């Protein structure tokens, strides 16, 4: 099965891979930043918090919402806009 990955080795491997990409400064990127970017891109594309939570391996959406609250804000805002539209369309609801 192997052993767990050492954080320093993971960072080193990521930066070595990024060094081959034009326009990227490898020292500016960490696995954490890559993960936050991943969540941001999924959120911007409209994936639900439930779907994002599964993809990043969280046991519940509350963990995802707490850790990535800035990245998933567009999903929350989209929901709020939809609810506003519903209630404006049905003022008696």
From TrEMBL:
UniProt keyword RNA-binding, yes or no: no
Protein name: Tyr recombinase domain-containing protein
Record's keyword terms, sorted: DNA recombination
Residue ranges of domain Tyr recombinase in the record: 1-84
Gene3D superfamilies (UniProt xref): Intergrase catalytic core
PROSITE patterns from the UniProt entry: TYR_RECOMBINASE (PS51898)
Originating species: Streptomyces albiaxialis
Pfam family, one: Phage_integrase
């Amino acid at each position: 099965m192997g052993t767990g990955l050492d954080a320093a080795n993971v960072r080193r491997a990521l930066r070595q891979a990024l060094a081959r990409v034009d326009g990227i400064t490898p020292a500016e990127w960490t696995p954490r930043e890559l993960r936050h970017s991943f969540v941001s891109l999924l959120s911007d594309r409209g994936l639900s918090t439930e779907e994002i939570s599964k993809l990043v391996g969280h046991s519940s959406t509350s963990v995802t919402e707490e850790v990535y609250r800035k990245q998933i804000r567009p999903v929350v805002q989209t929901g709020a806009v939809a609810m506003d539209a519903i209630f404006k369309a049905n003022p008696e609801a």
